[in-house]
Amino acid sequence: MTSYLCWPTEAWAHRVITQRSVLRKTAEVCRDIAASEGRDFNLKIDDNLSVTKVQNACSSTTASTSPLPADMFQTALNDLYFSNEKVDFSLALIAEYHFHDETFQKGRNIITAGVASLKANVKLDNFEAGRQTLGQVCHTLQDFYSHSNWVELGKATPYSTLIRPDQPLENLAGLDTPTCKSCTGNICTDNILPEVLQQGLLTSGYFNKHSSAKPAVSKVSNQFFAPPKSLESGNFLVKFSGVPAGDFVVHLRGQDVSSTSRSTPGRFQRQGSTQIKTSTISVTAQADDINIEPGSTISIPFTVSSDTTGTFTVRVSNDRSFSFTSPSTVDIVAGSGGKVNGTVTLTASDSAASGTDVTLIIEVEDAAAADINYAVLRFSVTARSTDLAGPVCQIINISGICLASSSLCVSSRWELIANFTDGINGTGIVTINVHQGNGTLNTSMVAGAGGENITVATYSASCCSQSVQLAAVDRVGNVGRCVARARGLTITTAHVTTTAPTTMAVVKTTSSGGHTFTLSHRLWICVGVPLLWQ
User: Fold this and answer.
1) Using CB atoms within 10 A as the burial measure, which of 127, 375, 502, 521 is most buried?
2) What is the pLDDT of residue 235?
3) Which residues of 46-75 are buried (b: 16+ CB within 10 A; e: fewer)?
């Protein structure tokens, strides 16, 4: 099984996977918006999409006279890439962020908590924090497929249970269950035990030895040194094997070899506007979680490393004026290996709104005040939600007869009556909208027999518009839908689906003979599009 040893090839790096996924989903949403508005959408959706192509196609399907430039879209994508890739550095040793060591339950908790945080970020128009959260969630979700045997089990579709905390994770291999044999050097092909596949057990890669039944392997990091690597849209990545001591600036020289109109290549040079200074002090910090609940406290261990011994001053700050504790100094003593550990605690305010982000800075200075370095961490404040299910739709009645003749459709009408509820423990329905259909929607509130609030949705349309999709959203972003269609002399009701509280996978709901719609489309409109264009 090659996925037990993660080989980060260029073609399927996290950046490439994220880019393709975001561009495809954005294009699909724009295509469906165009279809609902009767507009053309002339873009082939495949793995060859670019930022410019998607931006231009989506701009042509909106009523905006001033479409946003593609570089803003690219900047938003860069935020996603950075936060995605950062998980392999800032959270490298926390198994559940990578689905290592059979941590399926904890890994799912990270995904579902991250999506809840993302929704809260968007609700507060905190799009920068939302992009960071989305990038981190995507990394963990991507690692499930590369660090587990899901594909080797013959699964060809996404594992929707990962985004549904209301469903059990089943057939998991235990910590003491033998699942694989040791690799031969770096060759880990076909190292899953046959009985694991025969029993359909889900197991994950091991990069730490937690059980005598599991052979451990070493993770190969994605570090290499090469000439500038083209990313996209004029962006390049350069990696250096080392940096000079003291102050320095980055100076770039090159030549344009693409022009055919010149006899000699055009040369160019640029110098960075920022002077960079290396430090003999290293500060690393890592928290076990990236989310913090209002009124709760999180501990952040940090390590100070230096070539010199002595007392170092520690200064801590955050941009939300949250309470914190921290040592004022730390001492690196002889024989300590040039390192010392400390702990900072951060307490979120009780009144902090869910979706708020907070940046924490741990700054360390030597005794002579001649050298300084720091670590920066960012957290999202997310209130714990017990509302895990989406609103439930019950179709009460569909009335009216639509004749087969299209010329008579204007004179005929049909009507749908449906009840939406969010349950006794739900946070309450905020909006009900017509996602597809050209009719009139009216809503009213009544009390149910069990004390729950019922929103009665009455939709009326001419027979020229014979299908409808209603979407209800509760206060924490869970979505429920009703799909119905009237055609000819026969009225057909659609399946009714209650969607999951998270939206990282596609859940399809169809009406009989009607239009197919995916849950991820609507929530990508609500969440993804604002993140990428604002």
Assistant:
1) 502
2) 67
3) eeebebebbbebbbebeeeeeebebeebbe
24-72 confidence digits (pLDDT tens): 999 998 988 887 777 888 899 998 899 989 998 888 755 554 556 778 8
* Same-domain pairing of 47 and 21: yes
441 forms beta bridges with 459
The CA distances from residue 396 to 9, 416, 454, 456, 482, in Å, are 54, 8, 12, 9, 11
**Joined tokens for residue 195:** 């009985």
Q: How far apart are CA 300 and CA 324, in angstroms?
A: 10
Residue 138 to residue 114: CA distance in whole angstroms? 10
- Indicate which CATH number applies to the domain containing 347: 2.60.40.10
Beta strands in 333-466 (DSSP E): 339-347, 357-365, 372-381, 392-399, 413-421, 429-436, 440-447, 453-462
- Long-range contacts: 186-194, Cβ < 8 Å, 24+? 186/5, 186/220, 188/1, 188/2, 188/4, 188/5, 188/217, 189/1, 189/2, 190/1, 191/1, 191/4, 192/1, 192/4, 192/149, 192/152
Q: Are residues 416 and 308 in the same domain?
A: no
* Cα–Cα distance list, 4 to 93, 101, 149, 306 (Å): 16, 11, 8, 35
The pLDDT tens digits of the residues spanning 201-227 come to: 999 877 654 455 565 544 433 333 456
- CA 382/CA 387 separation, integer angstroms: 14
Task: In whole angstroms, give the CA distance from residue 310 to residue 87.
Answer: 32
Q: Which residues contact 154 (CB under 8 A, 6 or more apart)?
A: none
Distance (Å, rounded) from C-alpha 41 to C-alpha 56? 11
Tokens 């344009």 -> residue: 256
Map residue 96 onto helix, strand or coil.
helix
Instruction: Provide the domain count of the chain.
Output: 3
Decide the pairing of beta strands 329-332 and 310-318. antiparallel
Examine the fold and report which residue of 170, 199, 228 is the final residue of a domain before the chain moves on.
199
179 and 43 within one domain: yes
Q: How far apart are CA 403 and CA 463, in angstroms?
A: 8
Q: What is the pLDDT of residues 93-145, one digit of tens each?
A: 788 999 998 999 999 999 998 998 898 898 888 999 999 999 999 999 999 99
| Residue range(s) defining the domain that contains residue 351 | 281-381
**94, 110 contact by CB (below 8 A):** no
DSSP 246-282: SEE--EEEEEE---SS-SSPEEEEEE-SS-EE--SEE
User: Can you tell me the mean pLDDT for 368-381?
Assistant: 92
Both structure tokens of 1: 């099984």
